[in-house]
Design a protein that fits this description.
Helix content: 25-40%
Shape: globular
Strand order of the largest sheet: 2-3-4-7-8-1-9-10
Radius of gyration: 19 Å
Distance between the termini: 55 Å
Amino acid sequence: MQRGLIADATHLDMSFTTLTHKVRRHVEDHNWQVAVGKVCKGVCAPLYTRADYRIYRIDVSRWSDASVAPPEGFAFRMLTTSDHDGIAAVEQYAEWLSGQLHDMIAAGGLCLLATCNGEPAGFNLATFGGVYMPLVKVHRTFASNAAWSEHIMVYRHFRGRGLAKQIRRRMFAELARRGTRYFYGGAETWNTTSLGLAQSLGFREIADISFRRILGVKFHFIRRVPASDPR
């Protein structure tokens, strides 16, 4: 009985820690309003859940010979399985990657880390083959010449210095040199900042995936995005 109580207490502590990390990340990525909205959605999830996710794609083949330098004051490095400090830095921010990034890199994933005076400033994680889009509960297997952007972010106090675009461009070049042609990514349709960044880099918006769960019953809707469709 005592062991069970200890286990329950540990689980509650881990859940609270995970929630705290998620709230902190949403505040850093967006603002308090978005963070509170995410928490409210989580509370209501057993009864009703909805998400609308826009998928975009770019042909990176023309970047195969590109040399992309980081903005002044920053450095780039592609993480390896032996880069324990870099892996820990990424996992500390993105709690959903905790304990997984090493294996994702070992399986062929690419994680580009940007630093400033040794301090983590941002990253982009790309994977290949089978991927899972948790917001819309969709599994997808990409062709051998395609990659999926799992996550890209720049820490709040390093924004406004062109870092996100250069992280993306360096990843384009790295993917192209490894024989990848298409790079896919996605963002919720309300996230005009993320979608605007993608559009400014040449990504083409191709589809909207909508997910609804009402009292446990799941619904998926997929709609092609016309080239002239506004966000």
